[in-house]
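Most newcomers find our protein records easier to grasp once they have seen one. A learned vocabulary of local backbone shapes supplies the integers on the structure line. An example says more than a description, so a record of this kind follows:
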Amino acid sequence: MLIFEYRFSIFVMIPKNKIPHINREISWLSFNERVLQEASDPSTPLIERLKFLGIFSNNRDEFYRVRVATINRLTKLGKKAIAIYGDDPKELLQKLQRKVIEQQQRFEEIYQELLHELAKENVFIINEKQLSPEQQTYVKGYFQREVVNMLFPIMVDENKPFPYMKDKSGYLFVRLISTSQKQKNKYALIEIPSRVTSRFIVLPQEKNKKYIILLDDIIRFNVHEMFAVFGYTTKEAINIKLTRDAELDIDQDVSKSMLEKISKSVKDRKKGQPVRFVYDNTMSREMLSFIMKKLGMDKKDNAIPGGRYHNFKDFIGFPNIGEKKLVYDHPPALNHKYLNNINTSILSVIKQKDILLHYPYHTFDHIIRLLREASIDPVVESIKITLYRVADSSKIANALINAIKNGKKVTVLVELQARFDEENNIYWANKLQEEGATVIYGVPGLKVHSKLFLITTRENGKEVQYAHIGTGNFNEKTARIYTDFSLLTADKNITQEIGNIFDFYANNFKTGSYKHLAVAPFFMRQTFVNLIDREIANAKAKKKAYMILKMNSLVDKDMIGKLYEASRAGVQITLIVRGICSLVTEIEGFSDNIKAYSIVDKYLEHARVFIFGNNGDEKVYITSADWMSRNLDSRSEVAVSINDPEVKKQIKDIINIQLSGNTKVRILDKLQQNIYKKAKPGERKIRVQDETYNYLKNDKEMHLKTRKNNPVSSL
């Protein structure tokens, strides 16, 4: 593929490998820096700032477990890796480590700032050295009652291999000094049991002051008692953590089922190779040298010096103590204006018109109600659904089980390769199959990422179908914090094509044909390329040409190349990209007409929306797919063209709110500075997520007011 650059009325051919792009890993670190910005932003409520430190830490863990692990694997390929990946993996690892260490230093600075800010609110996070006599007594008692029976120290010395360290777990590495000359000094490893008990212990309040101590420090305060009986005293108790390669190696044995292969791979993942070792930078040289030798690592092997605590992901669950102003105000989720009456059949409403739900502003209960209704309604014959990530105690899965018990035919495609949700999905796949559902374990060679269900009814002797196409998972927990769209429709053109997709899932040779849906990996890429080409043609014909593209990640080089081509032709392009953006803005001759923004706020922006000017007849799509090669070429994804004028207007209004935002919005420039977009003098501050909630609330109130004045209207 060649891209043509228009300069001085001369077309210059630019080879594809010369397309300006930002390495995806470098761009990802820039995204996580935006999360870190939220932790440092004084306008973010104080306890929420601590939780953003937790989110930052959790993101970084996954980054090492997946992306750095992959790059580590590529280093073994030598020069071949550059041809495959496009960058030298060894050089990239060095760049990433420098950036991670820089971010870690900033992380520690922010944490110390937050401790001071909390103290001003009479909330104190204290360690074992800061306990008052009364608190010491409480901590000793708590340790004996709640903690000691969960601790299983492993003794370590020169003659033994270092014990296996679990991924995702935090440990105390303890240096023990013998009180007897007959014994050698030793070490011990203690897993911090934060998976089975809270990491944060609220101590008894003293006057108006509230105190919190971490589980790590409760163990530190009492650890000497565990070893004194053996003739040792504790010299150091240092927090350490190991991150392992979490990529699945799928067994290619054709005699095994996909369920068996994924189950085995998940077990093997827990023994993955180390990709990062994090330690307290106050650790003595003696201890550090000992453990690095035992782990078979050296300091250049992604060994990251940190602070007193690791596994900061636990701070996502930091207790909400103190005044209400210290946490976000989450207004109650809205009922959709057309679904406000809980006694009305949702199927009957969808039959009359398309419904657009927007989480977390709308309640996800509408989806659960709809599936519960379908599980009971005698006219319903079957339900087909794709499950990618479901909640632990999934109401969605339970509604499907109820449908089976009520005699409905239920078909469930469970994607077993949903990263880090494999075990949960295996559980629900087995459970649904035991109850009588037809379970499809994905599609060979593809990861099914589409968010679909299809309800088939028999009404007055005729088949009627109702469908869901969404941008997010059927997960009632994440629907409270992820912004996503769900389209509910009885449009025959759409429901018929969704039926074709489920036919493909059941019989992989039936790819189907599609006019109203863009389906990956077969037609989605070409559909979007055609729409971009149409904008390019309109621009060259001096017609208004524009695109507004909202997604989580923009990485695919071919799609980036098309956007550069469109920009050169004069198409006005606006990008809203939450995460990775490999496209480079502000490059003369490439991206002169491209602006890019990122929104990071109290909810995680997750919806994908693509809007094309189309010479006045706008084309609007919502989809589960980002513009990454894996989404367009290696996954089953679905985008739906929005035909209902009201739904189309609502999506456009919400996107326009996002474009008008001047709070919590960053400009994605070529230097990745993450500069905030600020209100101009005299301009009111617009916080996108609050504005969106108010828009939907006002829309509902206006509708109910209209209905009250015009009761003849059925909706």
